[in-house]
Structure formats: C-alpha cells, structure tokens
Amino acid sequence: MTRLIWDANGARFYETGVNQGVLYPRNAEGLYPLGVVWNGLTSVSESPFGAEPSPIYADDIKYLNLMSVEEFGASIEAYTYPDEFAACDGSAEIATGVTIGQQNRSTFGLCYKTTLGNDVDGPDYGYKLHLVYGALAAPSEKGYSTINDSPEAITFSWEITTTPVAVTGKKPTASLTIDSTKVSSTTLATLEDILYGTSGDDPHLPLPDEIAALFDAGAPSALELSSVGPLDDAEDQAITVSVVLTFNNAIARESVVVASAAGEIIAGAKTWDVAGKILTFTPTDNLTNDTVYVVTVGGVVDIYGQSLAAVVKNFTTVA
After folding, report:
1. What parts of the chain have a pLDDT lower than 50?
2. What is the phi/psi pair of residue 195, to 5°?
3. 125 near 104, Cβ under 8 Å?
4. 3-state DSSP call for residue 10?
5. Non-local CB neighbours of 157 within 8 Å, separated by 6+ positions
C-alpha cells in the first residue's frame, strides 16, 4: 500500500473553455446526417435535473429511497448562430430573407470541445468532446439596445431540454463525453473526421452505439459489400422482389438507387436491420415484367468514416 499524496506534480487538473461548436439538425429518421459550424459560441452550461429521492416508509421507519429519472438540460449562449438553427429556434422562411416566428421547433444535436489542463502541460494536456442528442430549444429573450459610447454585442441564449437516445446495455442518454487523454488518438482522429467531415465526406453526428463500436473495434475492417440479393445478372426475378444489400460494417449513410435500365428511378422504402449492416429496399409498386433493373450502390460510408467505391449490379424480372 502507498500513502495518499495530495496535489502531486502533473495531477493538478482543470477544465476550461468551450470551442469548435457544431450544430447537427435531426432528420425524420432520428439521425443527424449533416453538421454545420456554430461560430460565436460563448458558453454551454450543462444542467442535469431529476434524480431526486422519494422516501418510502414502512414499519414506522424509512424503508428505502426511490430515485426519479435523471434528465439532461443545458443553456447555450452565443453571439450568433448558423442559419440552420433558425428552424430549431421556431423560425421559418416565407421568402428569401423573410422569416416568421412562433413555428414548430426542430430537434438538433450539438458537439463542442472543452480544454483539459494540468500543472505540467497547462492547456495542452488534452480536451473533451461533448456530444448532445435530442435537444429542443425553448424560446428565449433577445435584448436589443441603442449603440452608445460603450457598445456591446448582443448575446443570444437558449435553454434546452433533451430526449435521450438508445444505448445498448445501458439506459438511454442525451449526452456523451470523450476524454482525449484516455482513448486511442488514432480512433479519436477517426471520430473527429466523422464529426467534422473530410474532403470527401460530410460531417455528421454518430449515435452512441456507433461511437461505442468505433472505440471497441479499434482498427475497423475495410468496408465491403458482403452480398447482394438478387445476385448480379440474376434472371427471372419476381416483380415483387426486394433488393437486399449486406455490408460487413455498420453503415452511417448511403445513396443507394434502384432504377430501370431505361433510367426510371424506382420509388420504394429503405429499412435497416438492428445492427445497421443489412439494407432492404422494397419497391412501392410491383416491378415491370421482363425488364432489366440496375442497383447502384453509391455514397456508402460506415460508422468508422470509411467509404465504399460505387458498385453497380443488375437483375432481370420474369417474363
């Protein structure tokens, strides 16, 4: 056993600052497919609430405490906000440059970074990435005042509440934090490519299970298309056939298109299995008999940020 030592060299830690804010509007599928820079972000104050005990009494004594559900809330302050946040703030454009308020508020995700420091490395010690899901902004006061001899920029602020997202094996959550000093720098760089985008891929906000898979997997397998149904060049396929694509990694986004050889895009519904590896495309209407159909597997990016080169397959329906 060693005796406890207080304030040892290198062990005097602190956290400060907020920077590199990114806004991720949520789509109808509950995903956050595109991020935009939030310039002018000055503070994010996290304020969880709930988790309050409700005492239960029996036999004239305190029997136990029942804890209420904990929820994640926060307040955001900024000098400005991206145009994409207008819908999250209850605004809608009715003509170019003309907006109205009191509209339905869109849900969004948020990413920001805080600095970790210690007494040896100072603010170069590391940083934390903070991810927020299912956020909804409440109306807030905007105070405008005349310009005087001591002008100040207007500060906008919003109180946000959240709806948690699912996490395999854990309770749902609306917040996730990654400590750069405790994870692989290579894997962290891969995650930041996903969050901030690259020259070839748009930024997006991955869900907690995707992030867990990324850090658990370490170096992921190269992205591959494992199987296609119907098989390439298959003939005599039923006009009710669905296209099924199986990948070896969980997929973050795709642009798979099914069309006739004549170029007519086929309308249909896309569904994924729970693991996010099997995509099923079911046409809205029956296909046409004795017709060649082309499946273009393009724009596929897995949860590790790896892209798949476009692949084209085809099949022919029964005469």
Report:
1. none
2. -70, -40
3. no
4. coil
5. 75, 76, 77, 78, 140, 141
